[in-house]
Recover the amino acids of this structure.
């Protein structure tokens, strides 16, 4: 009989465990386990899709186990093709370092830093010689790797697969050998790579790692897995009002999944929400507000969650422009300064190119009217309200 705590750990927010009976035996042994979590710093930011697995790591840490965080400074330069149909561009070492710094700052918003050991792949791969690569590649066949779903699809349709991409699962597998992992964590799209690690460990005489797979969180579009490249993500480092607003924009069909995967709301309460939504005894927006509140509180604070809730009600339900949310755009130093330049200076867009892209997409309004041209700021009347995207506001200063 599994005790309730372990049952919750192994069932809530879990897609598959390989092999559950073996993992359960390890958990009952009292031995502190080495939990492998690798990441490729191909992007600097973490979103809620990453959080699904990170929350499980934190739960294991609370039972006394240790996370071994592997920074994939080698594999990031190759790029894991999971879910993509083309060969990925290789990153420079400088890009990898910059992304890793930001990623880890956000990673430790969820995972306990004191119970985490950070390792870089370059610790073992920088000394790899050609004969080491040949020995590693000799342990697996091309046929085995073409059985991987994304490789198989590309091969059958005649799309290119770089030889470097075939190395990716081998390098990830060798990470498990290098740190002697007991359990590797990943999304369901990482199943093949994790199993290669399990197999390689057995080949070199190590106990095979257990594989702990979590579901892929569907993004705000309601169709595809959450991804920054698809623009359907909710970043953990975004402003509370932005996180709250994005949560409120998800389809009702995703509410229960989000409650289960990225909150600590008890199973019984989630089951009740599910029943109420199904029999229409509750407005889904009411449950969604609870979800948004919980997530903002998790990454910011209870106070921030309350303020974000109030902001949403005032701006999006009552149609008001909140004074505290308005960024004042001061009179430009140059008379020919443009809207894109001033929005960037005010921090409402990351760059002028982003501002111009939003203009082209019709995502910027001035006093309720959509604008698509990069206007000279002096031509916009004082006191005008500028709306950028769905949740960002600016105001042209009156003086």
């Amino acid at each position: 009989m599994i005790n309730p705590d372990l049952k919750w750990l192994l069932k809530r927010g879990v897609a598959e465990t390989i092999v559950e009976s073996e993992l359960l035996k390890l958990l009952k042994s009292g031995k502190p386990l080495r939990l492998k979590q690798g990441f490729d710093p191909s992007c600097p930011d973490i979103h809620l899709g990453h959080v699904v697995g990170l929350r499980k790591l934190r739960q294991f840490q609370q039972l006394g186990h240790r996370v071994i965080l592997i920074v994939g400074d080698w594999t990031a330069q190759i790029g894991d093709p999971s879910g993509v149909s083309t060969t990925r561009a290789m990153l420079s070492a400088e890009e990898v370092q910059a992304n890793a710094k930001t990623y880890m700052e956000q990673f430790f918003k969820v995972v306990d830093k004191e119970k985490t050991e950070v390792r870089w792949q370059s610790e073992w791969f920088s000394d790899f010689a050609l004969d080491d690569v040949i020995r590693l590649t000799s342990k697996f066949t091309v046929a085995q790797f073409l059985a991987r779903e994304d490789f198989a699809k590309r091969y059958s349709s005649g799309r290119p697969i770089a030889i470097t991409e075939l190395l990716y699962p081998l390098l990830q597998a060798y990470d498990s050998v290098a740190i002697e992992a007991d359990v590797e964590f990943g999304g369901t799209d990482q199943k093949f790579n994790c199993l290669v690690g399990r197999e390689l460990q057995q080949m070199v005489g190590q106990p095979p790692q257990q594989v702990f797979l979590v579901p892929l969180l569907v993004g705000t579009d309601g169709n595809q897995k959450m991804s920054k490249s698809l623009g359907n993500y909710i970043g953990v480092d975004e402003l509370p009002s932005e996180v709250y607003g994005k949560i409120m924009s998800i389809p009702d069909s995703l509410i229960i999944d989000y409650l289960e995967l990225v909150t600590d709301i008890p199973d019984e309460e989630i089951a009740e929400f599910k029943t109420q939504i199904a029999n229409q005894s509750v407005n889904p927006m009411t449950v969604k507000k609870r979800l948004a509140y919980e997530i903002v509180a998790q990454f910011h604070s209870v106070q921030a969650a309350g303020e974000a809730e109030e902001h949403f009600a005032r701006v999006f339900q009552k149609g008001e422009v909140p004074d505290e949310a308005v960024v004042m755009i001061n009179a430009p130093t140059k008379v020919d300064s443009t809207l894109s330049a001033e929005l960037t200076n005010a921090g409402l867009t990351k760059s002028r190119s982003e501002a111009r892209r939003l203009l082209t997409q019709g995502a910027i309004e001035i006093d309720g009217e959509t604008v698509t041209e990069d206007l000279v700021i002096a031509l916009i009347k004082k006191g005008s309200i500028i709306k950028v995207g769905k949740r960002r506001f600016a105001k042209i200063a009156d003086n």
